Amino acid sequence: MAEVTLKDVRKIYPGGVEAVKGITFDVPDGHFCVLVGPSGCGKSTLLRMIAGVETISSGEIRIGERVVNDIEPSERDIAMVFQNYALYPHMRVYDNMAYGLRNRKMDKAEIDRRVRDAARILEIEPLLDRKPRALSGGQRQRVAMGRAIVRSPKAFLFDEPLSNLDAKLRVSMRVEIRKLQKTFGTTSVYVTHDQLEAMTLADMLVVMNAGRVEQIGAPLAVYEKPATTFVATFIGAPAMNLLTMSGAEPALLLGNGSIPSEGAIIGIRPEDLALAPPGAPADGGIALPLTVVAVERVGPESFVYGTLDRGDSIIVRLPGTHAPAPGERAVAVASRAKLHVFSADGGRRL
Amino acid sequence: MEKRAIFSHRLLPYALLVPQLVITLVFFYWPASQAVWQSFLLQDAFGLSTSFIWFDNYRELFSQPDYYRTIGTTLVFSGSVAILSLSIALLLATQADKQLKGAGVYRTLLIWPYAVAPAVAGVLWAFMFQPSLGIVARGLRDYLGIDWNPLLDGNQAMILVVLAATWKQISYNFLFFLAGLQAIPRSVTEAAAIDGARPLRRFWTITFPLLSPTTFFLIVVNIVYAFFDTLGLIDTMTGGGPAKATETLVYKVYADGRLGGDLGGSAAQSVMLMIIVIALTAIQFRYVEKKVTY
Ligand SMILES: Nc1ncnc2c1ncn2[C@@H]1O[C@H](COP(=O)(O)OP(=O)(O)OP(=O)(O)O)[C@@H](O)[C@H]1O
Ligand SMILES: [Mg+2]
Questions:
Q1: For residues B41 and B156, what is the distance between their CA atoms, to the nearest angstrom?
Q2: Facing A104 at nearest CB: one of B101, B185, B196
Q3: Which distant-in-sequence residues (6+ apart) come within 8 Å of B68 by Cβ?
Q4: In the structure, what pLDDT confidence band is assigned to residue B269 with cuts at 50, 70 and 90?
Q5: Residue B227's pLDDT is what?
Q6: 3-state DSSP call for residue B284?
Q7: Mean pLDDT throughout B147-176?
Q8: Domains in chain A, start-ordered, CATH in brackets?
Q9: Pairwise CA distance, residues A160 & A151, whole Å
Q10: CB-hemisphere CA count at 13 Å for A322?
Q11: Overall average pLDDT of the B109-133 stretch
């Protein structure tokens, strides 16, 4: 067990793509850190640098006390679960799990004990004699997890380990990964582009965009106070509504003296909005008249898509199935406390 | 997955097979049956009379100590060529697989020897190693003090043909090994690295076993190559000598039949060779289907 520290880490691929542009953060011992961001933002690159299978162009990575920049992956004492599982196709499940222990010249009885323990925890004991090709996707996933936990490494690294599973299995494995990590208390770095996975697994969320960190924090803190419009729209589904306001408009609306004169972007989460009949008063909050365009009823909640009279489109999330019909007029209302205000370029929270 | 083509006309599949069948019939079955027939015949030295003698040619063949010596020579030659060309090709392929930059040039250069006709390669090598004129031969004598003369020393002659035959076969093996290496998912070797395996151990426990279908295929191909395709090379370099030290089975067929005029005996040897090829191919099919999968 160890903390994982990144200091101004950069990666420039041969050919000039700068995939990671100076990232600094610190995963405290035993914490579960989730790197989340859109496709191509450099998450895997960063994880692979921590694992040692990708070189570090500049900056410093530490695992525990040790700077690992120039240390071979085999010497870093970490375990990684790959998206495609990367099981050894020619070895039985047992040997897949024992491989890392044999490389460390552990004695046979101890290897056997550890492999069987891990197999019991992951409920894959009946599969120990099979080759990977005779396993289902979910079972392979479990073997890959088993291969990681038998070694009791300093850190677990996960690169989208659940993305090849069906929706139901994904949820149950998610819960299981979280449980295992808590049991072993091993520092973990987990890469995903699924924000639900990110929110439910993380102690510490790192939101990345285009090779940079946008925000670091506890999942709920990030949800409640997104630092930029990128984070605001990336975390939460459906995404936060953003209304660009020019000149004195936001100050008039919000009565907030700190709003710069060049304007601002106001964000309102769909779940913070309610619908009132046309002509309803603002009541100390804001009231946005709109025309309903479409309604999606998904059971416990409904999404109302509308066009504001000022021109923007907006999504309102209502509990239950009661919602106006398309074409009807309504007013979207929200209390001032629920508004997020960002600078006009979206890069800063005000 | 089963692949199935649908033909609209019932005769079309047969029509498409005809060219292949004709070629096989004309260039394989016909000469093969001729050889089998010939091996039961005895012809006098002038080709004037021919008599049917059943298995006498075979009996004669297996009573010659020479034939067993040739079998031994062939085994030594083929074994050395297969082992050398496979290991060198594998070494080069692993390096090329690591180093992607410039791999194109490297690969092209490595493939050239394969395009050189065996007889031409033989002449080249024979010339380079010619005791009095050859540049390599002189280097060996002047700098290493080796008394190099493959024209007199049977072991040296054997080394020479083995080297030349190996050189020609490396490119072929290299291509297959490189393709095999590139088919191994990178994440599997990365997982092994993270699992604490250093490069050499990774090679022997992950890469090499995953290459085994390729390796097995190449072993068979290389043995067949060394058995049969080296005739031109041996003929131009040593002519089977000195004192038959480099006479392989296929060269003996040629020497006895073509040069010695013993058509019946030569045909019997050809039939033996055919049986060997059929056996090798059968082994290959069996293994490829069963054992060497993972
Ligand atoms: N080997 C490579 N050589 C050059 N560029 C690369 C290489 N690997 C990745 N990149 C580039 O680096 C950037 C980041 O890639 P990376 O795989 O880290 O993205 P990611 O965040 O993991 O995306 P995804 O969610 O799709 O997996 C991309 O623009 C990608 O094209
Ligand atoms: Mg990725």
A1: 38
A2: B196
A3: none
A4: confident
A5: 86
A6: helix
A7: 84
A8: 4-233 (3.40.50.300), 243-342 (2.40.50.140)
A9: 21
A10: 4
A11: 78
Looking from the CA of residue A46, the nearest atom of ligand 1 is 18
Among A11, A17, A50, the mutation site with the greatest number of ligand 1 atoms within 8 A of its Cβ is A17
Q: Which of A27-41, A325-339, B9-23, B94-108 has the highest mean pLDDT?
A: A27-41
| Rounded Cα distance, B196 and A187, in Å | 19
In B, minimum Cα distance to A97 occurs at: B195
pLDDT of residue A201: 92
Task: Kindly report whether the peptide bond that precedes residue A219 is cis, defined as omega within 30 degrees of 0.
Answer: no
Q: Which residues of chain A make contact with B195, given a CB cutoff of 8 A?
A: 74, 79, 99-100, 103, 147, 151
Return the amino acid letter for A39.
S
* Residue carrying the six token digits 């972007």: A265
Q: Which residues contact B63 (CB under 8 A, 6 or more apart)?
A: none
Which of B100, B186, B187, B194 has the highest number of chain A CBs within 10 A, making it the mutation to test binding with A? B194
Domains of chain B with bracketed CATH = 65-289 (1.10.3720.10)
Place of tokens 């630092």: A227
Nearest C-alpha in B relative to A134: B294
Amino acid found at B234: I
Shortest distance between the Cα of A154 and any Cα of chain B, in A, equals 12
Name the pTM for this structure. 0.80
How confident is residue B1, by pLDDT bands cut at 50, 70 and 90? very low
The answer, yes or no, to whether any atom of ligand 1 lies below 6 A from the CB of A192, is no
Neighbours of A288 (CB within 10 A): 22
For A184-196, what is the mean pLDDT?
91
* pLDDT over 90 at B63, yes or no: no
CA distance A9 to B293: 42
Ligand 1 atom nearest residue A45's Cα: 18
Cβ of residue A45 lying under 6 Å from some atom of ligand 1: yes
In one-letter notation, the amino acid at residue B233 is L
pLDDT at A169: 85
Rounded to the nearest integer, the mean pLDDT of chain A is 89
Measured between CA atoms, how close is A203 to chain B, in angstroms? 25
Q: In what order do the strands lie in the sheet with A241-245?
A: A241-245, A264-268, A340-343
Longest dimension (CA), chain B: 77
B196 and A78 in contact by Cβ < 8 A?
no
Q: Residue A125 pLDDT > 50, yes or no? A: yes
DSSP annotation of B247: -
- Our CA-based measurement puts residue A45 at a distance from the nearest CA of chain B, in whole angstroms, of 13
pLDDT surpasses 60 at B101: no
- The model's pLDDT over A144-164, given as tens digits with 9 standing for 90+, comes to 999 999 988 999 999 999 988
Kind plus residue range of the DSSP H or E element containing A317: strand A313-319
Q: Is B102 helix (H, G, I), strand (E, B) or coil?
A: coil
Q: What three-state secondary structure class fits A212?
A: strand
Q: What is the pLDDT of residues A245-303, one digit of tens each?
A: 877 676 666 666 566 767 788 899 999 998 888 877 777 778 888 999 999 998 899 99
Nearest to A103 among B187, B190, B201 (CB): B201
Could you tell me which residue, B5 or B213, shows the higher pLDDT? B213
Distance from residue B162's CA to the centre of ligand 2 (Å): 49
